[in-house]
Amino acid sequence: MGQFDGKRVLVTGGGTGIGREIAHAFTRQGAIVAICGRRPGPLKAARDDMAEARDRVHVIECDVSDPEDVAAMAARVEKLMGGLDVLVNNAGVDERGRIEELELRAIDRVLSINLRGAIITTRAFLPLLRKAGRGACVLNISSTLGSMAEESSVAYCISKAGLEMLTRCVALDCAPEGIRVNAIAPGVVDTPIQDRIKGELGYQEWRSQMEHLHPMRSIGRPKDVASAALFLCGPEADWLTGVILPVDGGMTAR
Ligand SMILES: NC(=O)c1ccc[n+]([C@@H]2O[C@H](COP(=O)([O-])OP(=O)(O)OC[C@H]3O[C@@H](n4cnc5c(N)ncnc54)[C@H](OP(=O)(O)O)[C@@H]3O)[C@@H](O)[C@H]2O)c1
Predict the structure, then answer these.
(1) What is the residue-averaged pLDDT of the chain?
(2) Could you tell me if the CB of 89 is within 6 A of ligand 1?
(3) CB–CB of 86/233 below 8 Å?
(4) Catalytic entry in 4, 26, 156, 206
(5) What confidence score (pLDDT) does residue 2 get?
(6) Is 188 in the pocket of ligand 1 (CB under 6 A)?
(7) Ligand 1 probe mutation, 38, 96, 158, 193, most atoms within 8 A of CB
(8) At the fourth CATH level, which superfamily is domain 8-191+221-245?
(9) What are phi and psi of 117, to 5 degrees?
């Protein structure tokens, strides 16, 4: 028996990295899971990786920054799973650069996926979450950079700061209905979003610099975020809403 037996979960960006691990963690607890992303390859590989739960994993190609795509995904989720209990807004991208260096379209891209994508997806799935009733929830994957400014990260930082305020505003709006809305703010985790900077620095140098940023002197693993996700979406957290939970080896304790 799993903690999420029969619960229906959608993880955006669930084909790789943190999203893939969150999806896998939910399947281990008995959930029926849909994962979405733009590229079919990683989604199918992720489903293959969850071999023991393969018949409970649905793959949906969807760009969360496109409202029509997301509306089609909502219809597909309802058809495939009969509704939704947990929405995880995890899809995200990074573009590094100072405000005057970044092309405006690069800033727009980050905001349209990391922030507007979460807005579009939450709006599209709230009717299904309402049908599921009290106990349904939304989890947004932010970053320590939602509350800490970093050099050459203006687009990413403002997108995650917006996502955190979105979390709190929607949490208030949905609280009377018993729908909870929370966020996790991870520190550095070794996933494909880090590939560009890993390529620039070399893996060992990247790892040592990143470890040094965290008081615990280690970087995070996708499973560190996934276990926090299970907690925030589960019954042990049923009076918890509007919270931004750092999962960051102490980075924001300073
Ligand atoms: N790794 C870290 O150090 C770290 C730290 C703090 C926060 N985070 C956050 O954690 C989340 C997951 O990132 P990750 O670290 O696991 O990196 P990742 O492996 O690159 O995951 C990002 C996922 O988002 C999907 N995605 C991107 N744009 C999308 C779009 N328009 N529509 C649908 N899906 C889209 C990607 O798939 P496609 O490209 O196929 O669409 C990919 O599967 C992100 O929100 C990121 O900001 C990561």
Answers:
(1) 98
(2) no
(3) yes
(4) 156
(5) 94
(6) yes
(7) 193
(8) NAD(P)-binding Rossmann-like Domain (3.40.50.720)
(9) -60, -40
Parallel, antiparallel or unpaired: strands 137-141 and 180-186: parallel
pLDDT at 1: 75
CA angle 185, 187, 190 (to 5 degrees): 120
- The two tokens of residue 165 are 């305020």
Rounded to whole angstroms, how far apart are CA atoms 114 and 141?
9
pLDDT category of residue 123 using cuts at 50, 70 and 90: very high
Residue with tokens 């996790």: 184
- CB proximity list for 26: less than 8 A, separation 6 or greater: 4, 7, 9, 11, 33, 86, 229, 230
pTM of the model: 0.99
State CA 202 to chain mean position distance.
27
Over 90: is that where the pLDDT of 135 sits? Answer: yes
Measured in Å, residue 176 CA sits from the centre of ligand 1 at 31
Ligand 1 site, residue 146, Cβ cutoff 6 A:
no
| Rg value, the chain, Cα | 17
Cα 92 to Cα 38, 102, 127, 211: the distances in Å are 12, 17, 24, 22
| Average pLDDT for 182-188 | 99
**59 beta partners:** 35
Decide if 156 is catalytic: yes
